[in-house]
Amino acid sequence: MPKRRLRKAAFLAVTAVLALLAPTAEARTDPGIPRLTDGTGRALTLRGWNLADKDHRGDRALEDITERSLRDMAAHGFNFARLAVFWDDLEPRRGHYSERYLRKIERVLDWARRYRVQVVIDAHQDIYGPAFGGHRGIPEWATRTDGLPYTPHPDDWFAEYFEPGVQAAFEHLYEDADLRDAQARMWRVLAGRFAHHPAVLGYDLINEPMGRLRPGEDMFEAARRIEATQITPMYNRIADAIRQVDKRHWLFIEPTPAAGEGKRTGLGRVHDPKVVYAPHFYNAAMEAGRDYDPASGWLKAYEAEIVHYPREQRVPVVVGEWGPLNSSLPNMGRFYEEAIASIGRYASGWASWAWCYGGGYCALDQDGRRFQPNKERTVRPYAAAVSGAVRSQSYVPGEYRLEYVPAARRGGGVTELSLPPMPRGWRIAVTGPARSDAASVPPGRRGTVRVRSLPGGAGAVTVTAAPR
Q1: Exposure of 22 by Cβ count < 10 A (0-12 exposed, 13-18 middle, 19+ buried)?
Q2: pTM above 0.90, yes or no
Q3: pLDDT digit string (tens) for 406-438?
């Protein structure tokens, strides 16, 4: 990977925040939830952003996602991207798959490989698809409304999920045999094409699935029923389809968006050995533009409920989307600190929404020189891969500390730390039966530090990174 310096303004802004943050420590991860692992069994931590271009389609599909997007993400220390792709672009006519679109996806994956970013390919939908007000996702030819109405809600797009025509479309996707088969074929095409691409970590089977409410049900009752009786069988069908062409990548499964309000999912067992639970982490009030309210108890309630499914099913967790609409409000600094600490207690990683250049949800301003307010708090040191069992890790201003017990491996295992750029660089110290490949990281450079366990060594390893 070519070595590139961040623009001075960018890394100075990050450093200023790192220096000013109140002391925080990430608690030990939930012992009842497995960690995401790589092919050698190392425990992974994913830190990154979503990449999505919802505005362009056809010949211009994915136009807003460029090599710069991946280069800038990696330069700030992020190692993970959730890439939104759209079935309506992949299969615009039934049975006709777009080779041009597949090449566009492949180009993004090639950039990710160049900058060592791992990618989850996300089958994205919003309000089902383009049959409803120009949204993206499931093709018009796979949309059946039973003639029921659809009314746009320009000021509250999420309310469109409850329009009768949209709810009917989801019901048909889950229940109609020909649409089930079409969805499975689409996934065989997609996974078959990228099964051997080195940047691919896994597949997110569908973004924010919804369904039809029955008379007398509220959204949360309906969500649990839909998850149990329709979404779980859909995931098992898609998993079977993918495994016909790809045996090795992780399968990411989502509950309905109801989980974002701290409600327990009704999802059942997906019968595959490599499943990741991938909920989203949004609050309705904050999505409407309001400030974080620490007294509401929402974050605590969310964490208390979200852990039940991965504990019961013994699957790792990666939060697929999170981040407020307006990050500049007075309590948002506190929100970012509390949210990152909370997610770190139960998840192997996260992808914030979204890596783009501009306002709203975008990570950076229009010219890419500065993070939007408080979003620079996502930039911090972390252990990208640990060869062993993590005892604890913490970050306080000026120091990152990791303690782990090395796995017993012939030749010693390799643990990798990701360190964001700092004007003075980083100083690395290791105690215990391991050695680092670097004692320092130069000023202004992102650092990947590898710590190799010594064969036959006993006891825990402690790695400390502090400014030089």
Answers
A1: exposed
A2: yes
A3: 998 766 799 999 999 999 999 999 999 999 999
